[in-house]
Amino acid sequence: MKKIYFIILLLSISVYANGLDGKKVFETYCWGCHHQTAVAFGPPFSEIANKRTKEEIKAYIIEPKAMYKAFGYKRTVMTQLKLNDKEIEALSEYILLYKGK
User: Fold this and answer.
1) Which range among 15-29, 46-60, 68-82 has the greatest average pLDDT?
2) What is the distance between the alpha carbons of residues 7 and 32, in angstroms, rounded to a whole number?
3) What is the mean pLDDT of the chain?
4) Ramachandran category for residue 19: left, alpha or beta (phi over 0 → left; psi -120 to 50 → alpha)
5) Would the pTM of this model clear 0.85, i.e. be above it?
6) What CATH topology corresponds to 20-96?
């Protein structure tokens, strides 16, 4: 029983130490235009995850106006988000959870 509590404690510390939760970043900044597996105003995360690498996802989040042509889009309506490095990392990892879904 002590092992179970210890494992739960370690997992909790790990989540806290790693910082942000990608789902929280998504809910704060992305949910209005993107959904995880359904088309909204923007493409779903499942589509993005199956087409892009983590580096490409991060680059598009950081500077969509500079990246849209490289991705083959005719235009971009994605706004420039003011996210820090930890938020970008957490969000890109969260998006990639939907690969293959």
Assistant:
1) 46-60
2) 36
3) 84
4) left
5) no
6) Cytochrome Bc1 Complex; Chain D, domain 2 (1.10.760)
